[in-house]
Amino acid sequence: MDRIRIIGGERLTGTIPISGAKNAALPLMIASLLTRETLVLRNVPRLADVTLLGRILGNHGVDITVVGKKVGQATTDGQTFKLKSAEIVDTTAPYEMVSRMRASFWVLAPLLARCGEAKVSLPGGCAIGTRPVDLHLTTLETLGASIELEGGNVIAKAPKGLTGARVTLSKVSVGATHNALMAAVLRPRRHADRERGARARSRRPRKLPQEDGRQDRRHRQRDLEVEGVGHLHGAEHTVLPDRIETGTYAMAAAMTGGDVLLQNTRADLLERALDLLRSSGVEIEETPSGLRVARNGSGLRPVAVDTEPFPGFPTDLQAQLIALMCMAQGTSTVRETIFENRFMHVQELARLGARIELKGDTAMVTGVQGLAGAQVMATDLRASVSLIIAGLAAQGETMIGRVYHLDRGFERIEEKLRQCGAHIERLSS
């Protein structure tokens, strides 16, 4: 099993290219199930989750071609995919595939909308009610589907097609929003879709109209109205830059007192996070090529923040922020409002010398003068990168185990950090 070794204490200086957003690429790839024609996606990141989803879609009959590398193209440049689902050959997504990646559950809606039926395994480790899929199912039922749970599988049927309805989500749900939009676009009737979907990611499913679906972009607070059509055409689309990767590297630069240009990214995707970093003493400048992040000699000031749906502070940056605040001059409060049990990184940060107290859904982080390298273990994707941020500032050697989590969401992270002066390497067992 691979490990990452870091010798901390070096400032990050240089340029880090930001990859395409995984959380945009995955639903867009799944949307290829909705049309017989070719969907071209540019700037697709090279990630384990992308590769796995490609296999899952191939099981349904999607032909995926990766366009060859061009002259002068760097290994960190995004890929171009061509996806064509001329025929759906299998409407079943089995457990051995879905259990490895929660986002694969989103194939449920397009399979149902296009074929009138789908059998999809519940996500691995998912009990209804914990990171629930009940919102997905009630949404599809509202649109006319019959839903049964059998042997850990969701069996959805709509032999006469889905119907228009008003869908109101009881709480913010990114995945349920994806499924609702993809279910609604393939009917020649009006579908008024969700009031409380995830505003953060609504930019992504809104790209479906580029496949010539007639999605009405009229806004009434947080409502979307979708005019379903009989079929969708192909499209070409460039995946937007990854805001979580942007925020992660910004915090890494701040942690080391560095000066880094985050290339090919956009400030509007994470304004709340950038404002928070500025309030902590980090310099952030928008440039024609991206964002310059610097902290030259000044100490870090503590912050207080709650995780929120877009445009609030993202839950996927919570672990990284806690790592950064371990070196702040005072006590920070970070409240997690989106997911339960998302503080598993805290005990590992404590091994590096961090002072963190948990009170329910809130972490109280008291800054220390310095961190010391130690052997730690990654528990999930965001936790693993928080340990890297801490390790970059810790004195001595930090060894991080179970780093396969990183490959799911961060493209070539060691290479990108090493190019900016970090002493970091991957060790294979």
Features of this protein?
alpha+beta, UDP-n-acetylglucosamine1-carboxyvinyl-transferase, Chain, 429 residues, 4-stranded mixed beta sheet, 23 strands, globular, 2 domains, 26% strand, single chain
How would you portray this structure in words?
The protein is α+β, with helices and mostly antiparallel strands and 429 residues long. It has two domains: 3-19 and 241-427, UDP-n-acetylglucosamine1-carboxyvinyl-transferase, Chain (Alpha-beta prism), CATH 3.65.10.10; 22-238, Enolpyruvate transferase domain (UDP-n-acetylglucosamine1-carboxyvinyl-transferase, Chain, Alpha-beta prism). The protein contains 13 helices and 23 strands. The strands form six sheets. A four-stranded mixed beta sheet has the order 21-22-1-23. The chain is globular.
Q: How does the major sheet shape up?
A: 4 strands, mixed
Tell me the quaternary state.
single chain
Q: Please name the fourth-level CATH homologous superfamily of the largest domain.
A: Enolpyruvate transferase domain
Helix count? 13
Residue share in helices?
25-40%
SS strand fraction? 25-35%
Structural class: alpha+beta
Unreliable segments of 5+ consecutive residues: 125-129, 194-220
Q: Give the total of beta strands.
A: 23
End-to-end Cα distance: 5 Å
Average pLDDT over all residues: 88
Number of discrete domains = 2
CATH class call of the largest domain: Alpha Beta
Shape: globular
Q: Going across the major beta sheet, what is the strand order? A: 21-22-1-23
In the CATH hierarchy, what is the architecture of the largest domain at level 2?
Answer: Alpha-beta prism
